[in-house]
Amino acid sequence: MLRPDDFFIFCDGGLGHLPALRAKPDLIVGDFDSHARPVTDTETIVLPREKDDTDSVYAAREAVRRGFGEFLLLGAAGGRIDHTLGNLGLLLWLEERGKKAVLADDYSVMEIVSRDEAEIDDSFAYFSLLNISGTARGIRITGAKYPLEDGEIPCDYQFGVSNEVLPGQKARVSLREGRLLLVRVFPDPTTPPESAG
Fold first, then answer.
1. Which of 63, 91, 106 represents a domain boundary (last residue)?
2. 86 Cβ partners below 8 Å, 6+ apart?
């Protein structure tokens, strides 16, 4: 999912993944409570440890300030549930500002669906629609094992888990009101499909 022309922002503990990602940071952001501050000539923003924003939130704000419009968040899910949920909130924050944002881990690719129709191809094992913000209404799902017409998903009843794209088709999701978290689940976590980006 990484491209050579990406602007890479590494946050604190993410620096531990530099060798695996084979990417050179363009910017480093952090309070360095989970990784030693590197000795480098790369631009580095050192944050205080006591602050309202997490390192990831600060990095996203800085990227928005610099004019970036597309975001790929890696290493932002799994581990501590509070950080994972906070980073799902970051997807909402970026979407509110008209930014395209995707959060990916070893198992799935996640993004917010609101104004624009989303498409899921059949290379994914499953997809789920979860409500993490208010109530979503006028939900339409086509090309899937469990289609839906003018549906509603509130936060307290998550019935949109584990749908499947019909073989050889593309599922499409749209909604009239609200926002949903779309989770595309890889068939095998060790080999993400080519279309994941």
1. 106
2. 54, 56, 57
